[in-house]
Specification:
By secondary structure, this protein is mainly alpha-helical. It contains 18 helices and nine strands. β6 and β7 form a beta hairpin. It is globular, with a radius of gyration of 22 Å.
Length: 479
């Protein structure tokens, strides 16, 4: 085992929060360390333990320590995450049992790509250490959501999430820009300080002569997927008049980065989210203000005009960008990356069919879709349990889910619910395992806790209530 510098940083932050912070602070720290998706706190054999996973250990310990003084907050986290707990418990059972039941039934692409670097590699189904690893990560996803649910009982939790979400989004943007510039001027060694995990490069790093943006994530699709989750949250906050100027600017910047990183899954996620917004406004047309439509339309028109003018004055730039976009969209299926992803996606379907809807066990194969990974790994039962949990987060039949801007105390909770669920879109198009991300777990856990407290009338009062239009409603000060 090799200890990396991330481990020391996470440990220092974790211990400091134990001594002077709160469970909420440790939860925010987990979200912050999720920024470093290409980093490793520890490298064990050929496997990398990301900083967020190590931060989760400190968060869990903090929650357990807090139970010496009170336990209601933990009860809230457990109560609101029942369905995720059932999904993860079933996933752990599937990881240990199903590969042994269906051993050698079919050949599947292994989850550990570095162990089989040949394209389109497939091995007979068998129980492996990847099943154990995936089972541990599924437990981690459940623990993160429970801890977030416990943190939602903190009166300052809504304000803390909004503040830190903006900070995290801008740091992610900075890493994307800095990574691209450093890569182009020979500063790859600096990027490798942060991107120190042992992940295999599974995609092209250039397209049409353009260096693709990946920040400190392993690949552009991972960078885009992470950016999209925060883009959804910023958009939902803006629609609900929560710090509207700041969240609108942040959402716009994230959109530009999403476009610039040339990820097919990122483009598809953005298109699907726009379609989702259109459907929501069709269901509740009175909820959308003209004041929200006009700025977006003006910005889109300005960007389109600027792009056309740039291509007119610099023709070769238009040709280069067009070539890159064509290769990464309509020509994606012809690339090695696109063909491999289709191969992995078919493997999930084959696993589901060949096991008669039972699944081959979590961690038994590599997929390219969260849905197909869950379907092929845990079958009908696991898929149903997971989507009941998603349904429980979103609560699609409740009026406040669509109301804009909505009640002040509920605005951030509903925004977090939409961000957690919409944030699954990139994973549905690119995730390799059935394990939901830490961002989904934390945002979902917070949303569940807040909405449960609202519905049951157990709303914690804060000295700084819900943020609206850049001001705290009661204190009257900008945060």
């Amino acid at each position: 085992m090799r200890v990396e510098w991330y481990a020391a940083v996470v440990a220092l932050v974790g211990v400091a929060l134990w001594l002077r912070g709160s469970v909420l602070g440790s939860t925010i720290a987990l979200l912050f360390f999720s920024l470093f998706g290409g980093g490793a706190a520890f490298i064990v054999g050929g496997a990398s333990i990301i900083p967020a996973s190590f931060a989760l250990v400190f968060l869990l310990a903090h929650v357990l320590l807090s139970m010496f003084s009170k336990s209601d907050h933990v009860n809230l986290g457990l109560k609101t995450n029942t369905w995720l707990g059932l999904f993860c418990f079933f996933g752990v059972l599937s990881a240990y049992i199903f590969p042994k039941i269906f051993v050698n039934l079919l050949s599947l692409p292994p989850l550990a790509a570095s162990a089989h670097p040949v394209a389109f590699a497939a091995v007979p189904l068998h129980y492996s250490k990847q099943n154990i690893t995936t089972a541990i990560y599924m437990i981690g996803a459940f623990v993160a959501s429970v801890c977030a649910g416990a943190a939602s009982a903190d009166p300052e939790s809504r304000q803390a999430l909004v503040r830190w979400a903006v900070v995290i989004a801008w740091i992610h943007i900075f890493f994307g820009l800095a990574g691209s510039m450093l890569q182009n001027i020979g500063g790859g060694a600096i990027i490798r300080i942060f991107r120190n995990a042992t992940y295999a490069e599974l995609v092209e790093t250039e397209a049409g002569g353009y260096s693709r943006i990946a920040g400190i994530f392993p690949e552009p699709s991972a960078y885009a997927g992470y950016a999209f989750g925060w883009l959804a949250f910023m958009t939902e906050l803006w629609l609900r008049d929560v710090l509207p100027t700041l969240t609108m600017i942040t959402a716009g910047a994230l959109t530009l980065m999403l476009i610039a990183c040339t990820s097919t899954s990122g483009y598809a996620a953005l298109a699907l989210y726009v379609l989702l917004l259109a459907l929501r406004f069709f269901v509740a047309p009175r909820s959308l203000k003209v004041a929200k439509v006009i700025p977006v339309a003006m910005v889109m028109l300005t960007l389109a005009t600027a792009a056309l003018a740039t291509f007119a004055f610099v023709p070769h730039l238009g040709v280069t960008v067009g070539r890159a976009l064509a290769r990464l969209t309509v020509g994606k299926a012809e690339t090695l990356s696109g063909q491999e992803r289709l191969f992995w996606a078919r493997s999930g379907i084959n696993a589901f069919i060949k096991t008669w809807g039972v699944g081959v066990g979590a961690g038994s194969f590599r997929s390219s879709s969260l849905l197909l990974a869950i379907l092929g790994s845990t079958g009908v039962i696991g898929t149903v349990l997971f989507f009941i949990h998603v349904f429980n987060i979103l609560k699609p039949f409740r009026v406040e889910t669509y109301a804009l801007p909505g009640e002040a105390d509920n605005a951030i909770a509903v925004a977090a619910a939409w961000a957690a669920c919409a944030g699954l879109i990139p994973a549905m198009l690119s995730a390799s395992t059935p394990v939901p991300s830490y961002v989904f777990s934390v945002m979902g856990g917070l949303a569940l806790g807040w909405r449960y407290s609202m519905l049951s009338g157990q709303v914690a009062q804060s000295a700084d209530p819900v943020i609206r239009r850049g001001y705290v409603a009661r204190a009257g000060r900008v945060i």
